[in-house]
Design goal:
The chain is α/β, with parallel strands linked by helices. The chain is built from 10 helices and 14 strands. The longest helix has 17 residues. It binds NADP nicotinamide-adenine-dinucleotide phosphate.
Length: about 300
């Protein structure tokens, strides 16, 4: 299959990572980087030097989609200009709930008028995290979700956990839940062959943690964890009842710029399969997001 020809609009943090990821992929090609006139003469990294930099969409040829990596308040206007050329768009606006729905409606009108598809809010949050949130709620109707962002979480070494057999080292963070109760996240680097469940049980059973809400997360490298600043815990509890307690937990540490760029690329792969109009990520099928790798992904993940 011919690679999809994409343009990256705005060469800031998200735009630069999108451009690099596209240039490393086999099924996507970077046809142009669209920049404001003030920054168009700026130097590109060595790996992107052959990519044309343009300042107007009229200069772009045969594009399959444009990835809008510009500030949220500039997206609607730029999207309208691009859609006018019949070019599909993907954006990752930082809008949620009704504000995102209103943005989608505006883009939808223009997209239908110009017969092009658009995926809006296709980043980490909104975007992939919205899909996880939605699935958690779907699996536990009537339950409650807590989302705790731990930006710049402070971690301290934990002598006690190092005494547990199989633990190389451990870091502990204390977080206040919305009801002000104390929660502890214990991140453990394990020795080869150690059993994570047994270790989690041993840590929770220690008198230091008894009666406290303690979550234990095995990690590859504590050194890397200490360098990371951002994370989220999505915690969903189903309602009590005769079906028992369901408790779903997503703990993630990440660079939201990188994850946002990955979601934008996936959305671009889905664009050729969509009718004209605007969509948010949960409306796009996973199969479409995998693009030409859909069959392989189905075999691997189903
Ligand atoms: N959904 C999510 O989870 C998520 C996560 C992170 C970011 N985002 C969104 O992604 C977008 C990009 O974020 P970023 O961190 O890459 O921002 P950034 O580093 O500030 O880059 C934005 C780029 O857009 C261009 N730009 C700046 N002002 C502009 C204007 N008034 N009109 C048109 N273009 C303008 C500039 O590129 P040139 O100099 O090349 O023109 C600038 O480098 C934002 O909308 C942000 O909210 C979403």
């Amino acid at each position: 299959m011919k690679p999809l020809r994409l343009a990256v609009v705005g060469f800031g943090r998200v735009g630069q990572i999108c451009a690099e990821l596209i240039s490393q992929s086999h099924d996507l090609s970077l046809a142009a980087i669209v920049r404001r006139a003030v920054s168009a003469s700026g130097k590109l990294p060595e790996t992107l030097r052959s990519v044309p930099v343009i300042t107007h969409f009229g200069q772009a040829r045969d594009l399959d989609a444009a990835l809008l990596c510009v500030p949220t308040n500039a997206v609607a206007e730029i999207a309208a200009q691009i859609l006018q050329h019949g070019i599909p768009i993907v954006d990752c606006v930082l809008l949620h709930g009704e504000a995102l729905e209103a943005h989608k409606q505006v883009i939808h009108k223009a997209a239908v008028h110009h017969r092009a598809a658009a995926i809006v809010g296709a980043g980490w949050d909104p975007g992939a995290l919205s899909v996880f949130r939605s699935w958690f709620a779907l699996l536990t109707p009537g339950g409650a979700t807590e989302t705790r962002h731990h930006t710049g979480i402070s971690l301290r070494h934990m002598a006690m956990a190092r005494t547990v057999v199989g633990v190389k080292d451990a870091l502990c963070a204390e977080v206040r839940a919305p009801d002000r109760s104390l929660q502890r996240y214990v991140y453990v680097e394990l020795q080869k062959g150690a059993d994570p469940d047994k270790i989690a049980h041993a840590i929770r059973a220690d008198p230091l943690f008894l009666g406290e809400d303690t979550q234990v997360f095995p990690v590859e490298s504590l050194a890397e964890l200490e360098e990371e600043g951002r994370g989220v815990v999505l915690d969903r509890r189903g309602p009590p009842g005769r079906f028992g307690h369901q408790h779903l937990l997503l703990e993630a540490r990440f660079d939201d710029t990188v994850l946002t760029a990955q979601v934008m690329l996936a959305a671009a792969r889905a664009i050729p399969q969509l009718e004209a109009g605007a969509y948010v990520l949960p409306e796009v099928s996973l199969t479409a997001l995998w693009g030409e790798r859909a069959e392989k992904a189905q075999r691997e993940w189903l």
